[in-house]
Amino acid sequence: MAYTATDQEVRTFEAAHEEIQKTINLGQEILWLTQEECIKAGPDIDLTLELTKQALVAHGQKKYEMPAKIGIHPFSDVFFHAMPAYVPGNVACGMKWIECFPRNPKQYNLPQTTGLLLLNDIMTGVPIAVMDSAWLTAMRTPAVTALAAGALHGNAKTFGMFGCGVQGVEHVKFIVKTLKQLEKIYIYDVVPERMDQLMQEVKPFVDVEIVKAKDPKEVAEKCEVMSSATIILLEPLSVVKKEWVSKGQTILPCDLNTFWDPAISKEADKYIVDSIHEHELFNGMGYFPDGLPKITCETGEILAGLEQGRTSSDELIVCSNIGMSVCDVVMGKAILDKAIEMGLGRKLPL
């Protein structure tokens, strides 16, 4: 779906074009930002939530252009994704190239997720910056979950997190910002040490009791809102069983159709997704062996006030957010602007 910019937006693009020329020689140079520099210039949790909300609302209002992510899969348990996007309201245009190799930490002592984000000048199309994309992905992903949780179940007192790696840690940090009545957070990971690590890492940020669950069933039976950030596979693992969940819960997977019994999404009162096109693409690739559940609406439409979220306390709602590049380029543009202000990065010849 193409988006035609308004005259005002074009004037904003022209102003941004003039501004970036003060930093780099357009068409001859790019600005390179390392992960450390992205973190220095990056938004904090509150600003990340605001930027992510802007991106999701733009998506809900159809003020964007973003084809469904495409990818390659050298092995059954890994993927590379190419994720372009254009969000005129944030003067953001570019593409993320990211991979997920769950085997990396154990086999190669390397991160599970690495990647790069390329940003372009909208007026001329020339590349203006290349930066690490792993950190901003780690930030924007839990922001989407937290925003959706706040919109769908803002009065929840219990939250459950499956997966205690990088994403699990950030989810716990972010969720307390939008579920302000939380009294208890349950966590679970197949590697017990990760639960201890999560509790240690979030201690300075989270003033809510955190409980290490003995098994997934305990989390599913005790939590009103739950999220999972584990692994994405073609065949569902169905770790959480249908009989463990109940009416009135809100489930927010970040791992597509892998972690939960597919019957849960099929039988939910509402099945909401961040991107219909991307879920349809993954369905065509075989990630929903039992078929894609009937989609109610998109996350951004709820945040934009165009669709209703929870309308009854006994609704079982599944909101699947697998990551959209509109969030990536908006975050990347904010990082680039701040990095330039701070004098970070290095110029490289094209």
Question: What features would you describe in this structure?
Answer:
With about 350 residues, the chain is of the alpha/beta class. Helix content is about 35%, strand content about 20%. It contains twelve helices and 15 strands. The chain has helices at about 5-20, 35-40, 45-60, 105-110, 135-155, 165-180, 190-200, 215-220, 260-265, 275-285, 300-305, 325-340; strands spanning about 30-35, 70, 80-85, 90-100, 115-120, 125-130, 160, 185-190, 210, 225-230, 250-255, 270-275, 295-300, 315-320, 345-350. An eight-stranded parallel β-sheet has the order 9-8-7-10-11-14-12-13, with helices on both faces. Strand 12 (about 270-275), helix 10 and strand 13 form a beta-alpha-beta unit. It is globular, with a radius of gyration of 20 Å. The protein starts with 6 loop residues before the first helix and ends with a strand.
